[in-house]
Records
---
Amino acid sequence: MKSPILLLSALVCFATAYCQFPYSATVLSEYYLPLDNPTSLGIEVGWDDPAVQIPLDFSLNIDGNEAGGILTLGGVGEMLLNTTENGLFNILWPINLDVMDIGSVEAEEFSTIHYQVTGESPNRILKIEWNECGLYEEMSILGTTTMRINFQTWIYESGGIIEYRFGSNTITADSLGIEFLTSAIILGFDYDYYEGTFYSASGAADAPDWTLSDDFYQWYKSGTGLSGVPVEGTVYRFGPAVDVAENETPAQSFFIFPNPTAGSAWIQNGTEAAEFRVFDATGRSVHTFFLGARNQTQLPSEAWAAGTYTIQSLTPSGQASTDRLVVD
């Protein structure tokens, strides 16, 4: 495994300024679904450390500034690099593993990295998937491919949302033999001075602690990383940071009726378009949808098991609202 310093050394140097970080992370549990009919990135079989540009249908807004349609697969194949209009880089780092095509060892199997854009403007989602990827350490040393991983990165056109979605993997904590395992978003990394803003996960992979730092060496040398690779169904979701002090009693931005319900229920949205998610009592997401300002839609609650469901909305301006629906 190449160290994070060597991985980051592949980045172009740029200047940065430390500012309020635009994201806060939550952990969800959702079914992992492989992409259906994705677009190939044209990476040759046997790839290692690929570097290709991913075309976009919409402008990115990863650090609060629209950065155009440039997104590059880089690092050792596990990073997404976004070049801003100021020539800076923002880095999406789902998991810092040195992934490699199992096709370099296997005769009839191979790994793919591909993408897909779903939805309609302004609610499109760019989805990048790493499918059945092996690890460089195992293949280069042992010539085997027993350790494999599947994961995705979703970038939402609206709402300032990014998600890391983890599928099946055959990697155990004691099989890695690496010094530092994490999942992170990095804004404004400067290769010359190793400066930037690092928002990273540590501790239990299913309920990690998230740390914000602007000191690369303190962050890296702290030795506080994830205890293992997230299990299938884990979602790290990064949404707009909400200033709790300024929003102690936010106005409810949507209404549910009838509530309780023995069949279908409706949601009436407020004055701003929002993304909605419905969670069951175990915290699993069972329904996701977008709703325009003052629009309403019918929920498929007649198909849900009896119980209490939490419904959350998030607007592009960062206002979050929560309500509960009781299904009899």
Note: The longest strand covers residues 125-135.
---
Amino acid sequence: HPQQQRPVGSVFVIEDEESVFITVESATQIRGIQFWYPKQTVSDSNRIIPYPATIRVAQNSSAQGVTLSCLTFYGEYLAMDFNAAPSFPCEQILFEHCYGYPLSGQFIRIDRCYDIPRVLHCHVNPANRRLIEGGYSVQVIDAVVRRGSYCYAIDHTDNAQLMDLFAFGVHGGVRLGAASYGQLTNFNFDCVTVGIYKDGDQDFNRNWQISQGSIIANTGARLAEVHPIVITGKGHTSLVNVECFSGANAALTTLNQSQDYLCVLGTEKLTVSLFGCRMRNYAADHPFTVLNDRAVIQAVACIDRLGNLFNFPAP
């Protein structure tokens, strides 16, 4: 706007602190809209307003065929809440080309979505208010990280499709829940404590194929909790061309390195395969922290922090 610090175009100005702004039911499309919370702080973490979700899936009926496209959020707390009620799962849900920075750390959360959820081309960055009201302060971004939440979270889904995702300045990039499986490709999770957290509640199809991504895990309360990738539960995880590196960033408080590259937890048998993964700036002597005696792990043609070829188990 030439005179005012505000977005222009198709904009909803939201001030209601009690109610979800939009609840979507079946056969709904929302496109090309901006959602602006002008009262949300950019500088003081003690004044963060925990607004209800901007968009939420219906809780008293099953929503099918919902498209959310080309949406931008300014000052939101939780952007899109698709945690469906147990009796009313949702289906055929598409999120694409959405931008924001949720102060809860949760941009899109999906639970009980079958036939199948797609999250495509989404970008979460605290800089998105910079040219309107000023960028978020270090204090606010640090507070978002401390919430311990995941920018993208998905559970109880069939063959979820996650592609071209970016997140910056949150605790976690993506949480792949125990009752989920699918593909995650072309992603960048920057300035996070945990890049990917993958769980699994059985070994038949709790399998995720993860490829072509970059993780910068460099922030958190303690170095010991900073892991680019955490895997637990059952099932299989395939990692191909997923690189990790860490360093400083003035936008938030950083530790400038991660503890390791991969942390494997739990007591159940799980399997992990890695190919072509470049691993840098981890503090431990070994890139893998394996706290699960039943885990089966193989790495081929990877590169360690010293720039040496890394295979595991060593030949």
Note: The chain has a mean pLDDT of 97.
---
Amino acid sequence: MEIRTVGEVTGEANKGQADVADGLRFERRNTRIGADPLDGVEYELRDSVITNPDGSVVFELRGAEIPKNWSQLATDIAVSKYFRKAGIHGDAKKGETSARQLVYRIAHSVREAGEQQGGYFASREDADTFEDELAYLLITQRAAFNSPVWFNLGLYQRYGIEGQGGNWTFDQERDELIETRNAYENPQCSACFIQSVDDDLMSIYDLLKTEARLF
């Protein structure tokens, strides 16, 4: 996937022009128009069972739909850590059961955020290309996000899962920081934060609370 700004694409012909459209253009390298990249992968049903040293089961999900070329370790990590286990569309017993669901949740939600926040894509076709190429990279394990993306992104947008509020986000219309009403409408997708602590007991406890909410 090659990423170029509209100015780079139009290049020499538009030098000096101030009215070049905003947004990024994307060229297809691994996908085709009209073909779902998630359909181009061969899948199989696998069990993911994680046990303690004594053999007791910590986690178990049987019959997960996983790409055939994924290792069992990759399967166990995705299924046990990143699959949403419950709450899809309000059903306390319904969770993700396929790598296709997981990758679509991430790729489509990133694309959707780019469209909603404005200016990221030069056209609808570029947004389509971006989503397809990203889905291909993820399902074929050529790239991977850090854990908070897999944990949090798309749960509200795809499944209506809210979670507790109390985090902060930037309100573009009001041009200010606001406290979120739920955890997943504006999800935390970053992993690394540097916190400060003063040399007193209450500051130490405040740090513990903040660290627990972040991680």
Note: Confidence is low (pLDDT under 50) at residues 9-20.
